[in-house]
Amino acid sequence: MKAFVESEEFKKLNVGFVLDEGVASQNNVLELFYGKKIRWRRSSKQRNTPEFTLSIDWRIAITVDLEEFEATLNKWCKEADEGVWIEYQQKDSQVPPTKLDESNPYWIAFKKAADNMNLQLKPLILDGGTDSRFVRALNIPALGFSPMPNTILLAHDHDEYLNMDVFLRGIEIYWQLITAVANVEDKVK
Fold first, then answer.
1. TM segments (predicted)?
2. CATH number for the 2-37+95-182 domain, one of 2.60.40.10, 1.10.150.900, 3.40.50.450, 3.40.50.150?
């Protein structure tokens, strides 16, 4: 997805809003992801100890100052031993979340349509990875949402399934939401 959003083909699409997948909900409250935590996967290594590696996968809150955080990590390594250092396998940058306020006409349209269907939304910051981070990095608002209430979370499991009534209701919900955001007047940034 990263390569695609950097392509001329993507730019020609003139994307104003992205609706990404969400997750199933075990009750009637539907989770709505408007951002994601920052992922840093790293290994701490020590030169003076043969084969010693400590691997950590961090999901950093979007409010954390990353420069200060990294400076603290480097300080800890230096305090531990001059031969301790960090190698990053993944180091995502800070990407602002989608605004859920009056400044975002897509959110207003989405929320109004959801309210008209009496949907209960729970806005959250996602812990895991999502392709939405690449479009949010381009200042394109993106929401992760799946209308699957009262459904066991089996995403990507070997026995993943969806109740037929939930599936059919989900189509109606998507129809209403997509119609609402597709008719937002100001589509040009």
1. none
2. 1.10.150.900
DSSP state of 101: S
pLDDT tens profile 50-108: 667 788 888 899 899 999 999 999 998 889 887 888 888 888 888 899 999 999 999 99
Q: Which residues of 77-92 are buried (b: 16+ CB within 10 A; e: fewer)?
A: beeeeeebebeeeeeb
Alpha-helical runs (H) found in 81-131: 105-116
Quote the pTM value.
0.83
DSSP-derived 3-state class of residue 110: helix
Q: How many CB atoms lie within 10 A of CB 136?
A: 22
Strand order in the sheet with 84-91: 53-60, 38-46, 84-91
Give all strands (DSSP E) within the chain, no chain letters: 18-20, 29-36, 38-46, 53-60, 84-91, 120-126, 142-145
